[in-house]
Amino acid sequence: MALQEFLSTMGCSVIWSHGMSATEIAARHFSAAIAEAEGAGHATDSVCRALLSLLVTKYLESRSVADVQSELRFIADNCDPDTDFIFMRP
């Protein structure tokens, strides 16, 4: 079985033709949303808040409320770029 076929059966979605990672795809769309919003006169904070709301809604389609809260808490607890992740600290 080819790697692409195997990953598909495991539920993994990979963009093979472009070789883009999920992070690269998300970053491209995020940048486009920010640019479009700024062009329309919307504040960056408003767009970020709207995207966060959409992300939470999508998460809740397949994850429990407690799991989503845990994910968001982890991100909030580790959002300082000058600080190591909690699990990396000695």
Alpha carbon gap, first and last residue: 43 Å
Radius of gyration: 17 Å
> Which descriptor suits the 3D outline?
globular
Order of helices and strands: HHHH
The count of helical stretches stands at 4
As residue ranges, the low-confidence spans are none
Largest sheet: none
Number of domains: 2
Strand tally: 0
Helix content: 55-70%
Q: Briefly, what is this?
A:
By secondary structure, the chain is mostly helical. The chain has four helices and no strands.
Primary descriptors:
single chain, 90 residues, mainly alpha, 2 domains, 4 helices, globular
Describe the structure in your own words.
The chain is mostly helical. The protein has two domains: 1-42, no CATH class; 43-81, no CATH class. It is 61% helix and 0% strand. The protein starts with a helix and ends in a 13-residue tail after the last helix. The mean pLDDT is 83.
Question: SSE layout and pairings?
Answer:
Elements: H1 3-9, H2 22-39, H3 44-60, H4 65-77
